[in-house]
Amino acid sequence: MTHWSARLSPAQLNSEPARATCRMASVEAAAEHERILREIESTDTNCIGPTLRSVYDGQEHGLFMEKLDARIRNHDREIEKMCNHHFQGFVDSITELLKVRGEAQKLKSQVTETNRRLQDDGKELLNSMEELKQCRVQQRNIATTIDKLTHCLPVLEMYSRLQEQMRAKRYYPALRTLEQLEQTCLPRAGQYRFCSIMAENIPKLRTQIRDTAMSQLRDFLESIRKHSDKIGETAIKQAQLQRSLDSSVSTQPRALIGRRVRKEAAAGAGTDGGSPLSEQDSGILDVEDEEEEEEDVPGAQDLVDFSPVYRCLHIYTVLGLRDARLVLQPHSNMHETLEGYRRYFNQIVGFFVVEDHVLHTTQSLVNRAYVEELWETHSSYCDDPDLVLDLKNLIVLFADTLQGYGFPVSQLFDMLLEMREQYGEILLKKWNITFRQVLDQDNYSPIPVSSEQEYRHYTSQFPLQDPELEKLPFPKKLPFSEFVPKVYCQLKEFIYACLKYSEDLHLSSTEVDDMIRKSTNLLLSRTLSHCLQYAIKKKNVGLAELVQVIINTTHLEHCCHFLEEFISNITNVPPDTVNATKLYGTSTFKDARHAAEAEIYTSLNAKIDQFLQLADYDWTAPVQGGGTLAPSDYLTDLIAFLRSTFSVFTNLPGKVAQTACMSACKHISTSLMQLLLDPEVRQISMGAMHQLNTDIKECESFARAGPVAGFQGDTLLLAFSDLRQLLDLFTQWDWSAYLADYGKPSCKYLRVNPHTALALLEKMRETGRKNNVFAQFRKTDRDRQKLIDTIIKQLRNLITQHQS
């Protein structure tokens, strides 16, 4: 009211409308203040700023402060009323809490005292329980220890027993103990350190037992080696005794003879070529009844202790092995003499008597198939053909003697026929060494002959038939080298050696002829052929040597019919007999000659490549203004080499020399073409083309000279025709004719491939671009480059047309 009164004049205040207006203004201000207070009470303090700002923006903030103080006093009175209303209850609650605190303190003291007494009383119980626990643990440990000792003591006892058996060398019981220890006792004992040590030692002990048993078996084999001769001699004596008793067999009891025959069947059967063993024979060559024979001959058991065999067999059976077999090898010098063979036969008989004894007294150590296999292998030791012949004669004499007394000896002769194949193989090995020596010692040059006697000496060794050569005066040269007569004589010696074995075998002439021819074919097709191939293919063989090999094989090929006649003469069988085997000598020597020819072509081309590697063309050389170009040095040397080489080819067959010459010329032409088209050669100038043209002219001059006779006309020049037409096209620059006539039979450059021409033109274009730096300022060079570009486009169009 004071504020509004200050703003109104006294006249306005005194008027009734003014007073009404003033009342309305105060009512609105009071309502506004009330709203602001409610908003302050209900609004968060963070948002009260705008509300207070509206108060201060107005003119009635004094009146608002009065309203605010009055509202604060009202709230204070309400709070005081509320506190007065709840004060007595609060006081009662505090009093009760104080009483509860005292009771709680008493309860705490009682609980603490009770817990102390319980702890004191429980200590004695805990001590008793701990003592009981320790007693239970000790009781359990004792029971476990007793159980483990129950399992471990047998292991220790068995291992101790094993050690005693090993010290006593009772290996078979030790092996059984070892097996029981490993499979039964150790798994029950558990994982202990001493068990692990024992398990690690078991393989070592088993290996020790095996090695000891094998050592004893080796000692036994040494004993067999010492006594096998005596055992075999005893068996042969018993066989001889049996044959001596055959004449009086009717006067002896049947049962005694039956026993003797069974005991000596092995040695008797071994003499006539059959099986040296008997199913009923025990292998012990002792006399069965000492009272029936005054002179008792010792047997295998009397001379040899077989206990190491049985012991090793038992041990290896337990170990699961089967490699303890008897092996007796003959001495290396046993086959040098016939007496050595007699001793060898004694040892073989003794050895198989021992094997037969082991066969009948053991199981699974050896079987009959194994023994028979050993018997078959003892016929393959000898590698001396002369000794085999002596042995054959000894067996034939022995067989004829027995046959005279009525004994069947067909098996012996069958064995001799089987030995014939072995004898043939021995001969082939011997002649293989002989042929190698002849080839290595040959000088591969024609044999010089200075007298009629010397000439007759060689013609007596080899059937040479050359009337023109006979007319020539001495000194002269035979066309072949020493290799030819020596090989021919060795072939005859081989035929004689085959004939010697067939003597006294009661074979027909046809069978002997067939045997000799088959053996000779093996010598020609296998042994001699391989030796010739070896001589041709070995390193450092020159062209002259290869030429001589061809000449030699040609003469040997021509003499094959003389070998046919030679065999027919010594066997008395005509060569035209039906089913007669023909010799393979012709094909053998043809194959060798063809191999030598192929080697000549290869070696000649390789030598040409060596010269071509020296070629050093200057592909960017300019065109020389005047004078003639000289051929390249490498090509001059190459032509000289070819002339000297082809001069040696005069004794060769015409086709061989012509083929070699044509092959060499073609190889030169192809190699020079490859030089032109080499990708590494990126530029070629016309100067280089002129130099190459000069070299080709030199080659053509060599071809026209006819280095080898037999070519018709300019046939040899055809080898250089491709390169000649290509060089003419470039040196004469005759592109209009080439492009116009390409593909026609009458084309002058029919052999020029457009791809080749295009490749060379592109290389020439590169040369023009890089060398002629100022070409753009010279009209002639610009015109030439444009011409080359035009020809290249035309060639590409030509290639595209023919491809489509």
Automatic annotation (TrEMBL):
Q: Keywords for this entry?
A: Coiled coil, Exocytosis, Transport
Q: Which residues form the Exocyst complex subunit EXOC6/Sec15 C-terminal domain?
A: 411-763
Which Gene Ontology CC terms are recorded?
Answer: exocyst; plasma membrane
Q: Which InterPro entries does the entry link to?
A: EXOC6/Sec15 (IPR007225), EXOC6/Sec15_C (IPR046361), EXOC6/Sec15_C_dom1 (IPR042045), EXOC6_Sec15_N (IPR048359), EXOC6PINT-1/Sec15/Tip20_C_dom2 (IPR042044)
Residues covered by the Exocyst complex component EXOC6/Sec15 N-terminal domain: 67-236
A Pfam family assignment: EXOC6_Sec15_N
Q: Residue ranges under compositional bias (Acidic residues)? A: 286-297
Top-rank taxon of the source lineage equals Eukaryota
Q: Which Gene3D superfamilies does the UniProt entry name for this protein?
A: Dsl1p vesicle tethering complex, Tip20p subunit, domain D, Exocyst complex subunit Sec15 C-terminal domain, N-terminal subdomain
Coiled-coil boundaries: 65-135
Region ranges (Disordered): 260-300
Q: Might you name a Gene Ontology BP term for this protein?
A: vesicle tethering involved in exocytosis
Q: Please describe what this protein does.
A: Component of the exocyst complex involved in the docking of exocytic vesicles with fusion sites on the plasma membrane.
Recorded family membership: Belongs to the SEC15 family.
- Name-wise, this protein is Exocyst complex component
| Species of provenance | Sphaeramia orbicularis (orbiculate cardinalfish)
Gene symbol here is exoc6b
